[in-house]
Amino acid sequence: MVGRRRGARTGRGWDAKPSAPARPARPGDDPEGWSGPPEDEMPSARRPAGRFGSASGDGPAGDDGSPRAERAAKRQAQRDPHEVAREICLRQLAVRPRTRAELAAAMRAKDVADEVAEAVLDRYDEVGMIDDAAFSRAWVSSRHHGKGLASRALGQELRRRGVDAEVITEALAELDDETQAQTAYELAVRKLRTTRGEPDAVFRRVVGALARKGYPGGVAVRAVKDALAARSAEDAELAELLDPDLFDTPEQ
């Protein structure tokens, strides 16, 4: 019997290996390499999310009216209103200390109910997270030494922040007249260095600058006179010719 030649292919005869039985088709098989419909024909639930859009194909993620925005709005509506109020307050306090009135205004702007805001603010009062008296004392010290503001201007700023008049009075009591006079003098010295013009005009401009920082006219004039006298005898003589009462203004 003639042997089979090496390297010859097996035929279809008696010595051919039986082919493997065909595997039953399973769901998901890709006959003939088919990889599914084009992406634009896929159902929206299965379509991959684009770089700038949501998987639903309804436009950019988070746009008004999109499913994501609607879900976010629904979650917001379901949140505990006290939790929402606390979150608003904490964001405000993370920037700088706030008065009770400032926090109440921030919550009102976000449509927090008044009773919820009051409950949260009362709790913050109890634990010391808000303290209008401490806030006012720190404000007076910082703004006077940092900006040179006098009691009048400081009181106006605190009133705009909703601090009670009694609390303001107590805070301003720590700023005595002697301290304010010294601060006014130092401001006058610095302002005279940079103000140019006729002596009379310079005098009035510096006095006006101090008045805008809240110093009464008499205090401002005296500070400028002292600063001029320290600079030269000629300037001091000119300053003495002006009547301080002409610059005095009533308390506001």
TrEMBL record:
Q: Name one Pfam family in it.
A: RecX_HTH2
Query: Where in this chain does the record put each RecX third three-helical domain?
Result: 178-223
What segments bear the compositional bias annotation Basic and acidic residues? 65-85
InterPro entries in UniProt:
RecX_HTH_1st (IPR053926), RecX_HTH_2nd (IPR053924), RecX_HTH_3rd (IPR053925), Regulatory_RecX (IPR003783), WH-like_DNA-bd_sf (IPR036388)
Q: Where in the cell is it found?
A: Cytoplasm
Superkingdom of the source species = Bacteria
Region Disordered, residue ranges: 1-85
* RecX first three-helical domain span: 85-123
Q: Where's the RecX second three-helical domain?
A: 131-172
Q: Which GO terms describe its cellular component?
A: cytoplasm
Query: Where is composition skewed (Low complexity) in this entry?
Result: 11-25
| Claim: Cytoplasm is one of the keywords in the record | yes
Q: Which GO terms describe its biological process?
A: regulation of DNA repair
Annotated keywords: Cytoplasm
- What family does this belong to? Belongs to the RecX family.
Function of the molecule: Modulates RecA activity.
According to UniProt, the name of this protein is Regulatory protein RecX
Organism of provenance? Catellatospora methionotrophica
Gene name of the record:
recX
